[in-house]
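Sample entry (170 residues):
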Amino acid sequence: MTTTKTTVTIPAYFSQEELNSRQEKAKYNYISGHVRRSEFGSTFVLDSCFVFHDTTLESFVDGLVKLAINGQTRHTYSNIVTGVGYYSAHVYKTPSEQDDDLQVIMKDVEESYRSELAEEKQKQIETLTEQLLAAELNKEQKKEEDRLSKLRIKAQQEAQEFFKSVAESK
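Predicted structure, serialized as C-alpha cells:
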C-alpha cells in the first residue's frame, strides 16, 4: 500500500485586493478583447462590441454613419470583412449596454472567486479529515497490536508454567 502525503494548508481567505485585480483583468478583457480557447480552436472575442453587417456597401456605410452619430464607433483594430453581398464590422455597444455587461461580469467574477475559495476550503477540510481519521485508525490499530502482544506473552507464560508444572509433577 502506497501512501501519498498531502500537506494541509490554511485555505486562502477573501482578499479585496485579489478581487479588484481579477475584476480589473475581466474589465480589460471585456473592453480590449481576449482569445477564447476551446477544443475546436481559438477565436478572438470582443465582448464590448457587436457585429454590424449589411448586404450592400452603401447601406453598410450608411449604417456605420448612423451608429457613429449615436456614439457607437467602429472598433478601430478589427478588420472590416467583405464578401460578395456581405459587409461586416465590429461596432462598440452603447455605454449603457457596456455598463450593464460590466456589472454582470463583475458580479460573475466575484461569485467565481468566492466559489473558488469555498472549494479550496472544502478540499482542505476533506484532506484534514482523512488525515485525522487515518491517525486515529493507526492509534487504534497500535492499541490492538499492543493488547494482542500482551495476551500472547501472557498465554506463552501460562503455557510455560503448565509444562513446568507437568514436568515437576512427574
